[in-house]
Fold:
Amino acid sequence: MVQHMPHDKVLWIDLQPTLHCLNKRVSQLLSRSFAVQRWSFQHDLDESCSVDTVHELLNQTLLASSESMHLIGHGISGTIACLFAEKYPELVKSLTLLSVDTVSANHWSSHYLDMRSQFPASRKAILSHLSSLLFSNHDSRAFDALPCLLAKCLDTEFIQGSIVNHQTIDNLHVPKVPTFILNGENDFVVDANSRQRWSETLKSGDRYVTIKRGRHFFHFDNSQQVAQLITAFMQMVPGQWIDRELSSNDFTSLARS
Structure:
């Protein structure tokens, strides 16, 4: 097993700060093994924004660091982190993506916009229905709060098809850095075919895991399991993980919840 010093740094990319409460459990568990920092992005509502703008600011942050960092991102934050790692691989030690598809348009916000345009229902009703699809109801308080959190994101934060002015974001493929992808088995945003799409671009040292029965925010319900999987991956970067031969399980692992 590769031994890591406590100063190994993890940067959690957070383009939707309102939803950080759903990332917090995993982040806190990872902090037992790594120095975890949160990179949050917000801007004025009347200020134009693009992926390039976010990348420029993130680049400044990482250039100021004394070493490359492990990046983590969920949803659209993971999409932007993946594009960044492709553009600046020398700044990224590894990349972990949660609920991210190669098809960059597959985000919960795009599904909301589609529902809003197709169904004669109120915004509140659509968000309540969307929440039931995105999140399990194991924690009733979190489940009840999710429609309000999603509404705030739509109004004030980085959402494809809203604040980013309908710009096209390139579809993804695995960058040069070691990459770990975790998606939920029952995520209607990142469909089941995502595993095959990602597998076509995975390289030696990468890993894909499906969380059994997981929905879009599976890391909230399965924080212990997800943190353990991420920790195990990062502790093998660099070292035996990227040097050894891969097995078929690395591409199609099905984790139990």
Q: What stands out?
A: The CA atoms of residues 26 and 171 lie 27 Å apart. The first helix runs from residue 20 to 30. The chain has one domain: 9-255.
